[in-house]
Design a protein that fits this description.
3% strand
Amino acid sequence: MTDIVLPTLSFENGVMVNYSDMLAVAEEYKSLPDVIVTAQQGSRTNGVKSDLKKNADAIKKALKEEDKRRSEAFYETNHGAVTAMDTLNSVRDDLVERTNTWERERLEANMPVLEEFVSEQNELHSLDDQHRLDAMQWRKLGTFTATGKIVGKIQNEIVMRARLAEVEQNEKPKPTELEIYQINVKRAFSKLFEDFSADELYSGRDFQNALTKISDFLK
């Protein structure tokens, strides 16, 4: 970011003076590249963008403070300062679009690195489709360093999320009420078969008593 010292804005007979120096940063805009390619160009453009806003905000603040003390014709009298403010904001809007384009392109260029790392974690922890991590969760400029590498903090977060997903995936689901009932039925009939011998003869009452035991077991 450029390091500028803002001049002290003042008014003479209701007209703002010495705002012209603030327009110098707008001239610096002309030396910026139309398409941002390098990190250095992006950093410089962001610096000029910041200075434009700083200057425009300073003029706006001074105008508002003076406006409290003057008539409704204040802005008409200070049309030059108003125009300067609008110029600064207009130029900055252009740079906002320019840096946004550069940041989008930079993000797209870095995404394959993130996608590969997330894919490696999915494979390392054998995550199924339901538990696999999605690289889009971390699709933001803050994920990457200036050289396109994944920030260490983000790497650790992805690794931790993959481990938690693996634990969740391997947890045995709790049985439903129907499954619990089916298990109890199997146990009851298994116990019934233990009570009967293939070499013995049994009466209907014997079977009735056995079924009564099963009924009591399932209650």
